[in-house]
Structures are given as C-alpha cells and as structure tokens.
TrEMBL record:
InterPro entries: Cell_Proc_Reg/RNA_Proc, FHA_dom, FhaA_N, FhaA_N_sf, SMAD_FHA_dom_sf. The keyword Calcium does not apply. Keywords: Phosphoprotein. Residues 126-155 are annotated as: Disordered. This is FHA domain-containing protein. SUPFAM superfamilies: SMAD/FHA domain (SSF49879). Residues 170-219 form the FHA domain.
Length: 242
C-alpha cells in the first residue's frame, strides 16, 4: 500500500463512520498530503556527501469555510499529515532537520475547496516559535558534532562531521533523548548505543525500527575496529582511531 493509501486508511479509522461526512464538500486530506509530497520534491537541496535535504515544516492554508468546518479535527489531521509526510520522506531516504511538523491555518482570500502549502526547513528554535498543530521538537541547524579529543576515537560521517566517543556510553538517535542527534528520518529516536572502556568500542542496536548495519551486516551487539562503517538509516559513520 502506498503512503497516501495508508494515510487515508488511518483517517478512516480515526474518524470511523464520520469520515465521509466530515470531509464531504471540503478539501480532501489526501489532496493536501499529495501537495505536501510535491512541495518536498520541489524544495530538495543537496548536502555535502550527497544527502538530500527537504523541508520539515509545512503550513497548510485552508479557505475560511473549510478551516472553520475542520477546526474541531485540525489537531488530529495535522498529526496524521505529519506522519504521512515523514513516511514519504523516509521511503525516499531524504534528510530533514527535525521532526516533520504541520500547521493548519486560515487562508484569507481562498475560495472553498482551495488550499495552499508553504514548506520550509525549520531549525529547533524556529520550531519552538511555531507550535501549531503537530508541533514537535527539532534539531539545531547542522552542526559539527563534539570535537574529538586527540587521543580518543571518533565517528566521522560521509560529509565530514565528527562525533567524539567518550568513556562510558553514548547514545545516537533522532530524538531529544539521544546524546548525539542525527537529522535522518530513517533513524529511531534512540537508535544505538556506543560503549567505550578506553580500549574496545562496542556498538549495540537499541531495538531500532530499521536496524543497524556494520560493514553491511545487520547487528545487535558487536565490537568495532577503526575503519568499520556503521549504517544508521541513510547515515554512514566510520570509526576512526584517535
């Protein structure tokens, strides 16, 4: 089933028998989801290392009549639109700087059945300033990671960013709980743990959705050596010695 097909199924389940009644005569959510996908496609940007960045914040302007009619359901609809867009982005292996957020606004001057989608890349401080429907925590603008100590191991991404591996345990993921946060929708919120005892580096997958690969092989727990490549989502990290 396609992303849009799954989205429509979830909406039918969410609103049960009222689905047809709620959206009769107003703009259909699948049309909005499709427009969001096209906006992501048209706003692609190539990052260092060949990764593709797309917007993570989408403002949906509805005509005043449609907005008023859908207002009681706007929060739930925005959350489903955000989930659908995140799935679409993940299937293409694109990168976003933060969670996908959707805000539903009143678009003055739009006729009934019309809408417009405004897409942008929003960093963490911008997301906090725009807490509309479906808002969530985001990421800072791309950063260079923690500077690695001269004698310590580090992980190096394909675009040259470096992340220090310190003594003890370090978690990597997409969510705020992770100590190293990576803007990749294919990565779980807390995806993997790196343990370093001063000699050996151990990589442990933390039950991630898409799994963790080391040198192309899916792992649960493994000791890694300098030169080994760790794959999380679409992000590759190479272990380098200090």
């Amino acid at each position: 089933m396609t992303v849009l097909g799954r989205f429509e199924k979830r909406l039918e389940g969410l609103f049960e028998g009222a689905f047809a009644k709620i959206f009769k005569g107003v703009v259909h959510p699948v049309e909005i989801a499709g427009a969001m996908q096209r906006e992501a496609e048209s706003h692609k940007a190539i990052l260092a290392g060949g990764r593709i960045l797309v917007p993570n914040r989408y403002v949906i302007d509805l005509s005043p009549p449609d907005h008023d009619r859908l207002a009681p359901y706007a929060a739930a609809l925005a959350q489903e639109l955000a989930q659908s867009q995140a799935e679409h982005i993940g299937e293409h292996g694109w990168t976003v700087y933060g969670d996908v957020i959707v805000e539903i606004e009143r678009g003055e001057g739009l006729d009934t059945g019309m809408f417009r989608v405004i897409a942008e890349v929003a960093a963490q401080q911008e997301q906090h300033a725009h807490q509309g429907y479906g808002g969530g925590p985001g990421y800072d603008a791309p950063h260079q990671g923690q500077p690695a100590p001269p004698t310590g191991p580090r992980l190096v991404s394909g675009d040259g960013r470096q992340y220090a591996i310190t003594m003890g345990s370090t978690t990597i993921g997409r969510g705020e709980q992770a100590q190293i946060r990576l803007p990749d929708v294919g990565i779980s919120r807390v995806h993997v743990r790196i343990d370093f005892d001063g000699g050996q580096v151990i990589v442990t997958d933390l039950g991630s959705t898409n799994g963790t690969l080391v040198n192309g092989q899916r792992i649960s727990t493994i000791a890694v050596q300098p030169g080994d490549m760790i794959q999380l989502g679409t992000t590759s990290l190479t272990l380098q010695a200090g």
